UniProtKB/TrEMBL annotation:
<feature type="domain" description="VOC">
    <location>
        <begin position="290"/>
        <end position="409"/>
    </location>
</feature>
<dbReference type="InterPro" id="IPR036237">
    <property type="entry name" value="Xyl_isomerase-like_sf"/>
</dbReference>
<keyword id="KW-0479">Metal-binding</keyword>
<dbReference type="GO" id="GO:0046872">
    <property type="term" value="F:metal ion binding"/>
</dbReference>
<dbReference type="InterPro" id="IPR043700">
    <property type="entry name" value="DSD"/>
</dbReference>
<feature type="binding site">
    <location>
        <position position="191"/>
    </location>
    <ligand>
        <name>a divalent metal cation</name>
    </ligand>
</feature>
<comment type="function">
    <text>Catalyzes the conversion of 3-dehydroshikimate to protocatechuate (3,4-dihydroxybenzoate), a common intermediate of quinate and shikimate degradation pathways.</text>
</comment>
<dbReference type="GO" id="GO:0046565">
    <property type="term" value="F:3-dehydroshikimate dehydratase activity"/>
</dbReference>
<dbReference type="InterPro" id="IPR050312">
    <property type="entry name" value="IolE/XylAMocC-like"/>
</dbReference>
<dbReference type="GO" id="GO:0046279">
    <property type="term" value="P:3,4-dihydroxybenzoate biosynthetic process"/>
</dbReference>
<feature type="domain" description="VOC">
    <location>
        <begin position="437"/>
        <end position="586"/>
    </location>
</feature>
<dbReference type="InterPro" id="IPR041736">
    <property type="entry name" value="4OHPhenylPyrv_dOase_N"/>
</dbReference>
<keyword id="KW-0456">Lyase</keyword>
<dbReference type="InterPro" id="IPR013022">
    <property type="entry name" value="Xyl_isomerase-like_TIM-brl"/>
</dbReference>
<dbReference type="InterPro" id="IPR029068">
    <property type="entry name" value="Glyas_Bleomycin-R_OHBP_Dase"/>
</dbReference>
<feature type="binding site">
    <location>
        <position position="595"/>
    </location>
    <ligand>
        <name>Mg(2+)</name>
    </ligand>
</feature>
<dbReference type="Pfam" id="PF14696">
    <property type="entry name" value="Glyoxalase_5"/>
</dbReference>
Amino acid sequence: MKTSIATVSIAGDLAEKFAAISAAGFDGVEIFENDFLAFDGSPGDVGRMAGDTGLTITLFQPFRDFEGLPEPQRNRAFDRAERKFDVMQELGTDLMLVCSSVSPVSLGGIDRAAMDFHELGERAARRGLRVGYEALAWGRHVNDHRDAWEIVRRTDHPNVGLVLDSFHTLARRIELGSIRSIPADKIFIVQLADAPLIEMDLLYWSRHFRNMPGEGDLPVRQFMQAVAATGYDGYLSLEIFNDQFRGGSAKAISVDGRRSLVWLMDQVRREEPALDMAVPPMPDRVGVAGVEFIEFAADRQDAGQLGSLLRMLGFVEAGRHVSKEVTLYRQGEINIVINTERQGFAHSSFVVHGTSAYAMGLKVEDAAATVERAEALGAEMFHQRVGPGELSIPAIRGVGGGLIYFLDARTDLAKVWDMEFTPVTSASSGNGVGLTRIDHVGQTMAQEEMPSWLLFYVSIFRTTKTPMVDIVDPAGLVRSQVIEGLDKRFRLTLNGAESHRTLAGHFIAETFGSGVQHLALATDDIFATAAKLQVNGFEPLQISMNYYDDVEARFGLDPEVADRLRSANILYDRDDNGEFFQLYAPTFGEGFIIEFVERRGAYAGYGAPNAPFRIAAQKRQMRPKGMPKL
């Protein structure tokens, strides 16, 4: 498997791009002409820079408006091509991409285009170069890879081949079976990109909204299955035009790109096991049975406040770590850990972010296989000193640099609470409120980070993604997308903030980065839980009474039900399959959210219609802007 990426896909100058692309593990790089033209050096300098970072220049692109031109434009096009051939030879690459013409003076006709390409192939052959023809989705006469292939076929020249681009084919919904009949040796390179499904002009969609395979909604896997069926074993190259990527971290985007290609080909290999493909070996995506624990980093003062809050919420102190300043709180299947160590990763996290949920533990089918797959997909491994008698729990770095630990039932990892914690005798007592398990965890990040972490989760774990929704904060929009396990036992919401004035944006700004902001805890009876919480001294987030008048009318609720919701400050939603109830605690610290939920029937959502009203309530009870922390 040979991987490449176009320089247009990431930010920076050529030196920065080459360094990031090489560090991510790519084999090659496409030189986008504008990047070369902006470079203050010779083509030979570019070639040497690429070689010094271990990269092969796979392609020079694009050469525009070539085929089917009348004179004198035709002659000028060949003169331009000769100049580009000069550049290519100095760069040290042998392949030039020619995209289908959009020139208003271009003439149609497959035979006319084939004649032009035959002459271009002759000129390229004299220099030991090749030409690849690509059908732009908005080409004037050629906008379909089937027509581009017919031109290449009639050209009948060994130095002229086809460039297949997933975006151009999939954007036009072109039948994919036609690819399978193309000879592999006539496919000179394959370019890959995904995109969200948006109804808009093709050119604008392509230039601004492409993303990595797996981050969008196009059937890129099916496209690549058709390509693989030809026997093609050349470069797989990313060509991503995306405004956020061009303003983001070249290193992070490059890592995402490499991950997307490896995951794509892993899927293709599993769908087409009879095909011989050089794909890095790795275990299949791993199922997640739920969240085993959430771990907070805190100092002793905040740990005391957090512990008091948890006890009010019905948790009991169930254990203390045998060698570390770590306390376990438990209710039902929910485990919350508070770490007040003065050294190690938790302490470093506290120093940077303050009291925060810096780690979570996932219950997986096979912890070792999970880490092996994550590492193959470019995840950053995490290792920490282990004391005598302690378990070495496999972990990787996740959102905001936090940790994701993995536990399974097939090893001693299942015994972590017995082996590493001393039980507290009062654990059987306490005022439980009926909380059973973690329904979902919400992670907040800058909006431009969302595609990256979406790809991270769906490529490693056996999960699906739901459509993105807009959450209306009184100060702006927050984009939200959900990652779910196939059996719904694992649910994760990714929330992308555009403005620091939103509740999500405030959390990022005040805690110095992305991380877990929201913990939703399940109950089987929300009204009983609310009553028990009240006995414990709990005061819920106060929801506007106007909300309840609207809910009663909108859903046609029985007035008695509406009154129960109103008196307990419980939010309500309903879909075709069931009902959803939500009760919020006041925010903790700089916007950390604890929510109690009950699902009835097969309700599949997360209460998104209620978000504007609970966010308004949460912002009313937060520290006013400009007021110092106590």
